[in-house]
Design goal:
By secondary structure, the chain is of the alpha+beta class. It is built from nine helices and seven strands, in the order H-H-H-E-H-H-H-H-E-E-E-H-E-H-E-E. The protein has two domains: 87 residues, Chorismate mutase (Chorismate Mutase Domain, subunit A); 149 residues, Gcn5-related N-acetyltransferase (GNAT) (Aminopeptidase, 3-Layer(aba) Sandwich). The longest helix has 52 residues. The model has no long low-confidence stretch (mean pLDDT 90). The structure holds coenzyme A. Coenzyme A (COA) binds next to helix 5, strand 4, helix 8 and helix 9.
Length: 263
């Protein structure tokens, strides 16, 4: 009985000691948080100053500048013995919040901005594509449609070889389209809009951005969709695309190829 009491006392003392050590550590973390917020507040002053110097929304969130900042802070983290991955993730989140702040300052936060797609967007494009193409999978009863099974390395390879545009709403990627020039034809593909924003004109705007990318040698734009995708067919026909031919890919799925002359 006595031995049991002693063991319990020792355990309680150990618990108290670790509880107070944890409290001390938390106090230190709170102190560092205060310093961090002070530094973030100062960064905000400079970001707001930069925002006033940028005439147009597309200059906000310049991907090259973002990569420069991330690579710089990774180097600083390495010098200081900090975990560079943690610093990078923290910075990417903070930069995204500051981009939204700048866009809000310019009155652009809710207005989607069309910009160039880059390899750095691959992860977000993959997520967007998988979410958007579920409706197509439901139409054809096929969860293995190519946009749904494309892997990240495949997408990275594709993006490094093609032209592309993205639609951003604040720092959120809400749409994308890819295109490739082949002689006189601009092949447009994977037009994708976030499900919650479909039907608000983004698809049409991305299609126009892809067409505007065509070099002088290009005389027409070509794309395809499935024969049961009535909404897509309406969208393309409304934008000047005319059915050229049909190709049965497999039972239940026929591709409708459409073409539009470009000026
Ligand atoms: C097709 C898609 C890119 C169109 O983008 P969007 O921003 O919704 O298009 P817009 O708002 O500019 O134009 C609306 C038109 O798009 C078409 N459309 C296709 N799917 C649609 C959807 N789920 N919701 C609304 N419109 C859709 C319709 O023709 C619609 O016009 P309507 O009002 O006459 O029906 C988008 O719906 C999407 O991502 N779909 C899933 C992926 C896909 O099928 N991509 C095309 C592959 S060929």
């Amino acid at each position: 009985m006595c031995i049991l009491l002693l063991v319990n006392d020792a355990e309680a003392a150990r618990n108290n000691a670790s509880e107070s050590a944890l409290q001390e550590v938390r106090t230190e973390i709170d102190r560092v948080d205060r310093q961090l917020v002070q530094e973030i507040a100062e960064r905000e002053i400079w970001v707001r100053a930069a925002g006033k110097l940028k005439a147009m929304a597309p200059a906000v969130g310049d991907p090259e500048r973002v990569e420069q900042v991330v690579s710089r802070v990774r180097d600083i983290a390495a010098d200081m013995g900090a975990d560079a991955d943690v610093v990078e993730r923290t910075y990417r989140t903070m930069i995204a919040a500051f981009i939204d702040l700048e866009l809000d300052q310019q009155g652009f936060l809710d207005a989607p901005v069309i910009g160039r797609l880059s390899v750095a967007d691959a992860g977000e494009v993959l997520t967007l594509q998988r979410a958007a193409y579920v409706s197509e999978a439901q139409i054809y009863g096929d969860p293995a449609l190519p946009p749904l099974v494309q892997t990240l390395p495949e997408l990275v390879a594709e993006l490094s070889d093609c032209l592309g545009h993205k639609a951003l709403r604040g720092s959120r990627l809400v749409g994308a389209v890819r295109s490739v020039m082949d002689g006189e034809t601009l092949h447009i593909g994977r037009l994708t809009v976030a499900p919650d924003l479909q039907g608000s004109g983004l698809g049409t705007a991305l299609l126009a951005a892809a067409e505007a990318d065509a070099g002088p040698e290009v005389t027409s734009a070509a794309l395809f969709t499935g024969h049961l995708s009535a909404g897509n067919l309406r969208l393309y026909e409304r934008n000047g695309y005319v059915e050229e031919r049909r190709e049965e890919l497999k039972p239940g799925l026929t591709l409708v190829h459409l073409r539009k002359p470009l000026p």
